[in-house]
C-alpha cells in the first residue's frame, strides 16, 4: 500500500512540493502505489475525514471510508475492508491443532480413562473439523438495501473540480448487498497459501453474511450486477484456496484425534501400572466341530474398565475382546444354514426353544473355565456370558411383532447392563414372510431410541450394529448388534 494510503484512508500529502505540483497532484501521483486499484484508485473521504456541515449522514455516523475502483466512470465505489488478510491460515491451523491437543490433555484423568475412546473421538472430531464457508448466491438468499448518500468526486479525473484538495460532494445512491454463507466466519480473516498479486477481495463480515456496499452517481443496474458478480467470484476463488489448505487438516483429523486419545490412554495406564483390560479367556473345546472357522490359538476376551458418571478413580472392568465378540456373532449368524437345512424342525419352535438351539452351537464351540457351560440362560430368552458375577455378553431372542417389540427389547438390554462397554446382541426371529420389510424398519427403530449414539458400519444385509449409552449413565457405552433370522412359519 502506498505512502498516502493508510487502511483505506487518504493522508495529507507532503507539504514539501518543490515542483509546485500542489497537494492534489502529489496525491494523484500516488495512485499507482495504492494496492490493487490500479486504474482509478481514488480515496474518498466521505466517511470520516470530513465531518463538517456539508458532510453526508454516513460521514457523521462514522461509517467506514469507501474507495472507488475501475467503476469510477459510472460512479460505483466500494467500501474498503480486506478479506483473507489478517492472519496466516497455516499458522491458524497449527494453533487449532495445538488447541485440540490441549483439550484432550485437559480432561480429568479418571474421566478420560472411564470413557470410551470412540465416544471421545466422536466428540472431538466434529468440534475441531474446520468448516470452510460456502456462499449462498441465489437471488432467494441475497438481500439488497439502498439509501441516498453523498459521494466525494474531488479526485474523479473525468470531472472538473477547481480545488481537489477538498471534498466535492454530489448526490448518489448507496447499495448494500448481504450475501449469506454457511461455515466458519473466522476463515474470512485468514490468508491462504495461494494468492495473487492483485491482492485480497474487499467486503465486510457481519455474522454469517458478507456485506458488499457500492455507491452510484447514476443508476446503472447492469454495472452494479457486474461488480457484485465479479467480487463474489473473487471471494469464492479465495475460499477454494482456503478449502485446499483446510482439506489437509480435515482429512487427517480423525487419525490425529484417535492417536492422541490412544497415546494419552496408554501413558495414563502405564503411569498407574494398570492394564487396560482384564484377560478373560475362552477355551475352545478340543472336540469342537470345525463347521465354523476358529483360529487354532484363540485370544481371550479382556474386559476394559472405565468409570461411571462421577469422576472416581479408574478401575478396569471386564469386557469381551472384540475378536471374541465377532466370532460369537459369526456362530450365531451361521445358524441360518442350520435353519435352512431343517426348516420343519424350527417351524413350531417358541422363543426359548429357538434360543436353546443357539446355546447348543455356542457351547459346542467354547468351554467355560469353571462350569463347562459358559453360555447360560437367565429368565426366558437371555443368552449371556458372566465373569466375576457380571454379564459381559448378553443376547436377547425375540420374535418380530413390530417396531415396538424391538424398542422394548433394547430397553430390556439396557436394564440388564451394569458394566460399561458390554457387548450385546438382539436375535430377531421373523415369521411374517416379509423379511425385507422387517429389515427396513430396524434402523429407524434403533436410531429413534433416546439412548442411541451412532451407527457402526457392518457388512451383511441382516446385520446391524449401534453404539448406545447406558440409560443411567451417559458415559457408559455398549454395543448392540441386531441379527435378523427368517424362521419357517
Structure description:
By secondary structure, the protein is an alpha+beta fold. It has two domains: 5-84 and 133-249, no CATH class; 274-486, no CATH class. The chain has helices at 22-29, 57-60, 89-106, 109-114, 117-128, 221-251, 253-272, 322-333, 335-341, 343-347, 351-365, 403-416, 435-448; strands at residues 5-6, 9-10, 66-68, 77-79, 87-88, 134-135, 143-152, 169-182, 190-191, 204-206, 209-216, 277-279, 283-284, 302-304, 366-367, 382-387, 390-399, 423-430, 452-456, 463-469, 477-486. The strands form six sheets. Strands 3, 4, 6, 7, 8, 10 and 11 form a seven-stranded antiparallel β-sheet that branches. A hairpin with a 2-residue loop joins strand 16 (382-387) and strand 17. Helix 3 (89-106) packs parallel to helix 7 (253-272), helix 5 (117-128) crosses helix 7 and helix 12 (403-416) packs across helix 13 (435-448). It is elongated.
- What is the tally of beta strands? 21
SS field, number of helical segments = 13
What is the structural class? alpha+beta
Mean pLDDT: 75
Distance between the termini: 83 Å
How many domains make up the 3D coordinates? 2
Amino acid at each position: 500500500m502506498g505512502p498516502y494510503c493508510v487502511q483505506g484512508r487518504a493522508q495529507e500529502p507532503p507539504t514539501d512540493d518543490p515542483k509546485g505540483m500542489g497537494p492534489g497532484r502529489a496525491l494523484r501521483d500516488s495512485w499507482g502505489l495504492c494496492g490493487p486499484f490500479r486504474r482509478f484508485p481514488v480515496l474518498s473521504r466521505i466517511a470520516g475525514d470530513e465531518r463538517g456541515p456539508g458532510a453526508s449522514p454516513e460521514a457523521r455516523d462514522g461509517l467506514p471510508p469507501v474507495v472507488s475502483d475501475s467503476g469510477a466512470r459510472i460512479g460505483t465505489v466500494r467500501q474498503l475492508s480486506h478479506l483473507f488478510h489478517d492472519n496466516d491460515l497455516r499458522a491458524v491451523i497449527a494453533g487449532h491443532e495445538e488447541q485440540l491437543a490441549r483439550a484432550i490433555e485437559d480432561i480429568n484423568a479418571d474421566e478420560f480413562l472411564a470413557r470410551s475412546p470412540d465416544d471421545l473421538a466422536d466428540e472431538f472430531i466434529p468440534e475441531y473439523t474446520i468448516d470452510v464457508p460456502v456462499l449462498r448466491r441465489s437471488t432467494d438468499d441475497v438481500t439488497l438495501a439502498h439509501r441516498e448518500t453523498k459521494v466525494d468526486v474531488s479526485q474523479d479525473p473525468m470531472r472538473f473540480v477547481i480545488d481537489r484538495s477538498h471534498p466535492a460532494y454530489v448526490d448518489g445512491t448507496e447499495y448494500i448487498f448481504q450475501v449469506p454463507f454457511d461455515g466458519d466466519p473466522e476463515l474470512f480473516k485468514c490468508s491462504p497459501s495461494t494468492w495473487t498479486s492483485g491482492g485480497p477481495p474487499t467486503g465486510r463480515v457481519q455474522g454469517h453474511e458478507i456485506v458488499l456496499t457500492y455507491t452510484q452517481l447514476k443508476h446503472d443496474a447492469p454495472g452494479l450486477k457486474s461488480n457484485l458478480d465479479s467480487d463474489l467470484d473473487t471471494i469464492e476463488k479465495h475460499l477454494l484456496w482456503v478449502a485446499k489448505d483446510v482439506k489437509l487438516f480435515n482429512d487427517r483429523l480423525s487419525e490425529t484425534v484417535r492417536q492422541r486419545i490412544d497415546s494419552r490412554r496408554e501413558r495414563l495406564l502405564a503411569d498407574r501400572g494398570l492394564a487396560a483390560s482384564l484377560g478373560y479367556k475362552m477355551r475352545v473345546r478340543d472336540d469342537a466341530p470345525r463347521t465354523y472357522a476358529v483360529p487354532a490359538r484363540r485370544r481371550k476376551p479382556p474386559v476394559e474398565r472405565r468409570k461411571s458418571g462421577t469422576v472416581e478413580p479408574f478401575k478396569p472392568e471386564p469386557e469381551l475382546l472384540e475378536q471374541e465378540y465377532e466370532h460369537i456373532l459369526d456362530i450365531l449368524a451361521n445358524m441360518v444354514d442350520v435353519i435352512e437345512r431343517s426348516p420343519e424342525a424350527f417351524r413350531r419352535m417358541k422363543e426359548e426353544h429357538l434360543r436353546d438351539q443357539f446355546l447348543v452351537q455356542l457351547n459346542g464351540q467354547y468351554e467355560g473355565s469353571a462350569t463347562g457351560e459358559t453360555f447360560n440362560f437367565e429368565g426366558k430368552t437371555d443368552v449371556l456370558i458372566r465373569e466375576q458375577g457380571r454379564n459381559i455378553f448378553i443376547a436377547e431372542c425375540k420374535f418380530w411383532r413390530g417396531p415396538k417389540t424391538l424398542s422394548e427389547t433394547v430397553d430390556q438390554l439396557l436394564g440388564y447392563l451394569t458394566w460399561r462397554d458390554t457387548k450385546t446382541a438382539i436375535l430377531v426371529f421373523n415369521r411374517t414372510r416379509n423379511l425385507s420389510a422387517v429389515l427396513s424398519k430396524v434402523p429407524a427403530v434403533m436410531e429413534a431410541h433416546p439412548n442411541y449414539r451412532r451407527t457402526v458400519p457392518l457388512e451383511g444385509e441382516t446385520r446391524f450394529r449401534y453404539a448406545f449409552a447406558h440409560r443411567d449413565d451417559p458415559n457408559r457405552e455398549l454395543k448392540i448388534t441386531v441379527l435378523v433370522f427368517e424362521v419357517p412359519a
